[in-house]
Amino acid sequence: MMLLFWVLKYKLRCYNDYDILLFMGIIELEKRKILYKETLLCYQCAKCSSGCPLVEEMDMLPHVIIHLASLGLERSVLNSETIWICASCYACAVKCPNDIEIPNIMNRLKQMAADEGFEPKRKDVYKFHKVFTDDILRRGKVHELRIMIEYNLRLGKLFKNAMLAPKMLFKNKLHFIPPKAVKGFRKWVKKTS
Amino acid sequence: MEKDNIALYPGCSLETSSSHYLKSLRTVFSVLGIPFRIMDGWNCCGATSVKSIDYDLNLQLNHKNLALAEEQGIKELVVPCASCYHRLADAEYTLNKDEKLRTELNGKNDFTYKRQVKVRNILDFFVNVVGLDLISKNVKKPLSGLTVACYYGCLNTRVPPEQSFDTGEYPMTMDMIVKALGANVIDWSYKTDCCGASLFITVNSIAEKLVGKILKDAGLRRVDCVTVSCPMCQTNLDTKQKTIRSKNSIERPLPVPFITQLMGLAFGCNPKDLGLNKNFVPLKSILSSCSVVKNEDE
């Protein structure tokens, strides 16, 4: 088995480990298909990286991530900051000549990182998304003040964005009372999940 | 325009942090003679957060919204919030394309989506359904003398090409509306640049840098205001503008009114009905230019 793997990898130059494992029948097609199909069309023009507004904050350029994903090496990017810094602005998707929806791939990578037990590299971003999602599941609508407070508590930085709160409260832009829950929402959540 | 089939999907932020957007929408709709109907029983679209954690949940939430809208006989679902629009349009596109997924969700979700509702962005609605003629007909105090930069943000126009009403690279719909109100519009290369969205709360330094770039360029071009149609963009450009301005050495304050607030001003509505007091950067400069026109009329 190992010999076959070695021959395929180094003698026949199949540098995609996943394709080798697939060929050898070790993993199933379903698993291999995860990001392969979407990223296959990428020919590395790097338009996504040149148009990305957040690229200077990233540790790995978007087109590199797509390249690694198309090679089946998506696990090597799960530890990057890039997938968390991406603000899903879709500037890359608009520019891509092959219509690859790069932010969707970033999202899949985020979910994959969570599924496989990777520590999110940017915990501040991950925790915000988590608090936001939990709050929606509570009543079907967002209670902004609670999200801000809960986020600060979970992050352990009590005074983050604290300067905003009095201004917002003064203008009646944040409410102490949560919005009315959507009728039958909790039941729906319980049933569908 | 069939007025009975139109309803609004407001989204969470229009009920709290951007209530002035909803208020001005209500006023503008009444001037244009469109019944102001809000969809019943809507739930949050999930925004960018839910899809980062659980894409399937995001699709289910929006499938429920679309199916509920159909149940209520809505044909045109007008969405003012860019983030909500992006999520709903994405769900519409995904579900229309993938029949297997649609039947699976219809069975699982208690609601049936039959592909009869059309999700429309507010800009799309104003230009293609209401029409620019009706808008310019209702203008009582033209905003002449006002130079406006139109800021679209990211998600208004960046939907899959089949859903899109405008180009993602250089959109023009908002420019057309503002021109119909009589104001000058500038050609602006920053109109679709990212404001940082939720990074404004999570990683402030990045978002402040991005907002700084946008405001600096607008300041250099000597515009009177930057108009937006996205509540998230409005919050980001408006709330912390004072600190961002001092960091980037921008002299003049730049008011950030919603497109509907500008429309209301041009229609001659009372500023109170447009929620102008809720903008952090006061809109004095705009109001004075409106009153200049008024004095000339007298």
Query: What CATH architecture label of the largest domain in chain A applies?
Result: Orthogonal Bundle
Largest sheet of chain A: none
Overall mean confidence score, pLDDT of chain A? 85
User: CATH first level of the largest domain in chain A: which class?
Assistant: Mainly Alpha
Share of helix of chain B, binned: 40-55%
H and E string of chain B: EHHHEHHEHHEHEHHEHHHH
Report the span from N to C terminus of chain A: 41 Å
Number of strands of chain B: 6
Written as H for each helix and E for each strand, in order along the chain, the element string of chain A is HHHHHHHHHHHH
Share of residues in strands of chain B: 5-15%
Assembly state here? heterodimer
Whole-Å distance between the termini of chain B? 36 Å
Poorly predicted runs of chain B are 292-298
- Let me know the number of strands of chain A: 0
Q: Which radius of gyration of chain A do the C-alpha atoms yield?
A: 21 Å
What's the story with the biggest beta sheet of chain B?
3 strands, parallel
CATH topology value of the largest domain in chain A? Fumarate Reductase Iron-sulfur Protein, Chain B, domain 2
List the helices and strands and how they pair.
The complex is a heterodimer of chains A (193) and B (298).
Chain A (H helix, E strand, L loop, with lengths): L1 H10 L5 H7 L5 H11 L7 H5 L10 H9 L11 H4 L5 H5 L6 H14 L7 H17 L4 H12 L8 H7 L14 H8 L1
Chain B lengths: L5 E3 L10 H14 L14 H7 L1 H17 L4 E4 L2 H16 L1 H10 L9 E4 H9 L1 H6 L9 E5 L21 H8 L3 E2 L13 H4 L1 H17 L4 E4 L2 H8 L2 H7 L11 H8 L17 H14 L1
Parallel strand pairs in B: 1-2, 2-3, 4-5, 4-6
Helix pairs in contact in B: 1-13, 2-3, 3-4, 6-8
